[in-house]
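Exercise 7.
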Amino acid sequence: MLVVLDANVFVSAAIQRGASYRIVESWLTGAADFKVVMCPTLLDEIRDVLTTRPRLRKWISLETATLFVDTIGTLVDLVEDPTEIHTETRDPEDDYLIALARANDVEFIISGDNDLLEWGVQQPPVVTPSQFEQRFRTA
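Solution. The predicted structure, written as tokens, is:
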């Protein structure tokens, strides 16, 4: 199964031990039954948030954040940035994730972003980390 993990899932995984952490940990360790598709724009967004925001230093050091992002970059299925991006959500900055997911036939977008979660079309479906984790526990 292919999925897109939104930047907020990786950031959450880096700084707290909830569903996002468990999903990312299972993927990083190879225990997951899914692959993560990512484009350079998404990887850059994760890098930007984790390495340039001083308020995150109370949860993750700059060195650990850099190592985390570098590890993601080596393990992810890195594909080209989507070229055709249509306005689909309330936040046009989220629309590239939809284009990325559709271009790569992913099964789910996993996100905590309400603009994606409340998106009317849901093709592919957008689920929270907790919802995605629950699907795997019962599958």
